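Known limitations

Files may contain more than one protein. Parsers should not assume a single record per file. Below, a two-record file is shown to illustrate correct handling: read the sequence, read the token line, then continue until end of file.
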Amino acid sequence: MQMQPEAEFGLADARRILGEVFAPWVQDLNLAVERIEHAQPADVPDWQPGALLRMPFSERLCRNGGVVCGQALMALADTAMVIAILAANRGYRPMTTVDQTTHFMRAVSSMDVLADARVVRLGRTMSFGRVTLLSAADSKPVAMVSSAFAMLPGVNALRFDVVNKV
């Protein structure tokens, strides 16, 4: 199966990339892609393409005291932003994180965390985004993240079975 930027990019593609491209330790987070958005609705002028990912609660992700650790939250945000950029690009494109700034707002424990990732600017060489991390139980913000990604050159169409790790 080949993915090209012009091709349709669906939820199944995003889930496949999540399961096949990311490092094994990221896959161990058991993240789930719940939604991708790449087509602007006619009635929403300030809409941005994006993705919604879920990180299920696990004691393995908690620091002392039962609070989900910041490292897991930051990995969730980074991964969600990659999926959002792929959705906006409508296909796989290699990239690397250049910057990620996280503002933690409150602790989260004993519940899933949602990552609502939005592409602020999709560029040829750089892309920028923001992620709001929310507790799944009450939809209140846990953290806000801004990030920048360098879009790597040289790959327009890529077979998933020969893709290098993101």
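...continuing to the second record:
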Amino acid sequence: MVAHQEGVTMGLSWNDRRLERRVKPGDGKPLKPFRWWQMTRRSLLSIALPVGGGPSATYTVEVKHGGDPETGVVRARLYRDGLCEAESKLPARFPVPGGTIEVRRSEVGMRRCHFVADDGSEARLVPDPRSAEGRRMRFAREHPGASGLIGAVSVVLLLIGVGLNLLQVAQPISEIPAIADSLGTFESPLRLPVWLNVTLGLGAALGATERAMRMRYHWLLDGGAGT
């Protein structure tokens, strides 16, 4: 078993090894139950994994999106059967039996929380049913048509947000002397009123939040909308 783990470690990328090195031992405190008012401030996701030849253990990842009260740093904590076993700054990569649990977030919520097995296969951890992710998952299961429509609207809102950002950024960049001399300046064809700019920005933020509840992320859509 030790030789196998060493072989897996040797095959990791530099970034994966860096993430694993910053994992710290947990304090052993029990996992607190999820409360309804924590729906948008806390994420809990779990998976059952076999441990050796014995029974399975339940691994739970907790992320408090507001950060630690003392430092404000957002961390992921890993619980095994309800007791805190490890913690790490985000993004996090926790070694567990048979693979690793990878955790990432965006500015608006969870971006990724998957178990990656040693053979490369992946499984997404299951969110607590009372959390925002859990409620969104249940809605998708019970109302697939409405869920798909909401997902499509989220993408449209984000595309609009990305387009507006590109237009607003292009003009000041084009006014840089070296660029203006060689390519000329760009004048945005849109002159939107402030209220519409604010409304579309809020729409893009809502779209990104909705996608975060489904742990969907695309560097251009979600990152380009400022999330």
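Parsers that stop after the first record will miss the second one. For reference, the second record is described as follows. The helical segments are 2-10, 14-21, 132-142, 144-174, 177-183, 194-213, 221-224.
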